[in-house]
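During the second year of the project, the team shifted from modelling isolated chains to modelling whole assemblies. The rationale, set out in the original proposal, was that interfaces cannot be judged from single-chain predictions alone. As a representative example for this report, we include one of the complexes processed in the last quarter. Its constituent sequences, exactly as entered into the pipeline, are reproduced here:
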Amino acid sequence: MRSMTSNAPAEWAELPPLRWGLVGAGGIARSLTLSLAAVPGDVVAVCARNPERTAAFAEAHGIPTPLTDLDEMLADDSIDIVYVATPHSVHEEPVVAALEAGKSVLCEKPLSHGLTSTLRCIDAARASSSTFMEAMWTRFLPAWRAAESWIEAGDIGEVRTLTASMGFPAPTDPTHRLMDPALAGGALLDIGVYVLALTQRILGGDPEDVQVLWEPTATGVDGQASIGMRWADGRMANLSLSLVSDMEGTAVVSGTEGAVAVPSFHRGEEVHLTRRREVIRTERFPHLVNGLEHQVAAITAAVADGAQEVAGMTWADSIEVAALSQRIRDRMGLRYPFDPPT
Ligand SMILES: NC(=O)c1ccc[n+]([C@@H]2O[C@H](COP(=O)([O-])OP(=O)(O)OC[C@H]3O[C@@H](n4cnc5c(N)ncnc54)[C@H](OP(=O)(O)O)[C@@H]3O)[C@@H](O)[C@H]2O)c1
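Output from the structure prediction step:
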């Protein structure tokens, strides 16, 4: 029997041990596999295209069945949930196939490369009776739950402004998924989805005005972007993205009485309340493994309850975030080779 981390919430021990099948055997597939040290569940199969790399991944993580044929994985009735962890441009096909095969699905962010494709994934979920969620793990972090409870309690007064940045110097290899237009590379889809999901959560998905400045990489995808949004009631968001700069990454929700700040917000482990620029309260929430465990516990509970959606990241949330992202991409005029002709 697998040993669990001792610091996980007691109620997680009551969750059923789901049998997971991974589609993709890269960096985030590894992180999700490690997060199962805190939540009941086992990875029983992994599927990717390259047989040697897939077998090596399976061996490294004690996964009994490495596969290169998705249909073979989906035909395995013992698999409860499929985790789609391929590049964004190739999320839709495994998501739809897994839902049609009756599996629950957790799909990496962004749900897909564009609004139309995102809607096709959600349609497949609606047509199924399975649980389905975009893996917006930030929303399940205790630091953000604390930040939101302080905001709801009125600790910062009336929310007026959101500022958030996220960026790191990405590999410049033109074939890397972050640089390759054919894999829907670029900052907006990879890290912009975090600032947009935060914006949608705090301010809503319906800004009246969206302005964008951006700079392409040598491969033509978006390497840096500054996004400004204004809502009809005067609330504003200022968002910065970069695949060039090593950004500090704090998100600040500011109101008429103070501000809530989460450093390195997408993986936040602490939250500060400030008034007149003085920190008056700080709480820390260290990850139990790597932070993904909170979303894994949430979707495991939903599967156990027979719920199709997970309250922290609903299908409507995914659609609003994808619509915002598409709106920004359309303003940029950024197109991928697989986009249909206009
Ligand atoms: N939640 C987070 O913190 C987080 C962090 C990183 C990434 N992500 C998301 O997770 C997804 C995967 O990112 P990653 O960094 O794990 O990528 P990665 O390390 O490049 O791994 C991608 C995996 O997908 C497989 N794959 C299947 N079809 C592919 C195709 N057409 N082209 C390339 N690879 C393909 C690759 O194996 P084969 O080549 O053998 O098929 C590989 O195992 C992305 O959507 C990304 O946004 C989330």
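The chain has two domains: 10-138+293-320, 142-282. The mean pLDDT is 97.
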